[in-house]
Design brief:
Helices cover 51% and strands 20% of the residues. By secondary structure, it is of the alpha+beta class. Pfam families: TACO1_YebC_N (PF20772), Transcrip_reg (PF01709).
Length: 320
């Protein structure tokens, strides 16, 4: 806005118009000018008061206008962030659906993993018509989605292990490099995380009312029969945020699918998930607030990639 000099006569005419419009309603321009000419000449003190009043009035109007604009901008910004988050969630679920169909078939009645993905879509408020459309497309385009583990090196040699599912690993690696390069991190061409983490295969079975877990002896016997190392019963937070009891059979990561099959086929238990857990053997102690902030930021960005299943790290922060 340019700082144009404002004359008193200009402000005087504006105030006259406002005063007359308030008292008599909107008047024609000629009528306003006629009344303005007939007003008495005011003193210099009065001029100053009128000028201050006019300027204050103008400033107040501008502040209200900018506040309204800022409010609208905030609404649009919040909606854009919400839409972006929803789209990222939807893309992740689409990839998970494609992978589930390749692994267990197209029928959600016999494919537990596919049924879980469909349930997650409903919880994410994806419309039924859109879910069906995504399902139909995934059935038609069941290409080779594969699981991979990638390694990122951060400050103080901190290690991040990413589990991803993708049908275009080269493009995904390029996307990850763009993220980590901005924060002076590197995506490893030759991962070494196997020396830094102990890997354990885990077969998870949901505890139903029919299963008696007060006595763990029967499940220990099952673990021995199928070749698992041990079995524990713990409360685990589900996708709905509720704590549920589960049985976890620990085994060699290379045997996890075989053991899961035997647990279901031979012993009639329903496997809800199979996974390889990573337990750090060497921790990276990080006490710099700047480094911690950078790592948290990068982890969030890596997790936001639609192909990311999870991100594991070996960072340890000292207690204050």
């Amino acid at each position: 806005m340019m700082n144009t000099p404002v004359t008193f006569s200009h402000l005087y005419r504006i105030l006259c118009r406002e005063s007359l419009a308030t008292k008599t309603g909107l008047l024609g321009k000629a009528c306003i000018c006629q009344h303005a000419k007939s007003l008495p000449i005011i003193s210099e003190k009065c001029k100053l008061q009128w000028r201050n009043t006019a300027l204050k009035s103008t400033v107040k109007i501008q502040v209200r206008t900018m506040a309204g604009h800022s409010h609208w901008h905030n609404i649009r910004h919040a909606k854009a962030a919400e839409d972006k988050k929803y789209q990222a969630t939807l893309t992740k679920l689409q990839i998970a659906m494609k992978s589930a169909i390749i692994e267990g078939g197209e029928d959600e009645k016999t494919n537990k993993r596919l049924a879980d993905v469909l349930e997650s879509m409903k919880r994410a408020s994806v419309p039924k018509i859109q879910i069906q459309k995504i399902l139909d497309n995934a059935r038609k385009k069941s290409g080779p989605v594969e699981s991979h583990f990638l390694e990122v090196k951060g400050p103080r040699n901190a290690t991040f292990v990413m589990e991803v599912e993708t049908d275009n690993l080269r493009k995904l690696r390029d996307d990850i490099r763009k993220i980590v390069k901005k924060h002076m991190m590197t995506l490893q061409d030759w991962p070494s995380y196997s020396q830094l983490f102990e890997q354990k295969g885990v077969v998870t079975v949901g505890v139903t009312p029919e299963l008696q877990v007060d006595n763990m002896d029967p499940y220990i016997e099952i673990a021995l029969e199928v070749g698992a190392e041990d079995v524990i019963c713990i409360a685990e937070e589900g996708t709905d945020g509720e704590k549920n009891l589960v049985l976890k059979f620990h085994c060699d990561p290379n045997s996890v699918n075989q053991i899961a099959g035997e647990i279901e086929d031979t012993h009639g238990l329903v496997v809800s998930r199979t996974q390889v857990e990573f337990h750090p053997l060497v921790y990276c102690v990080m006490d710099s607030p700047e480094d911690i902030e950078v790592c948290e930021k990068v982890i969030e960005k890596l997790k936001s990639l639609p192909e990311t299943v999870r991100v594991i790290d070996n960072i340890s922060v000292p207690e204050e």
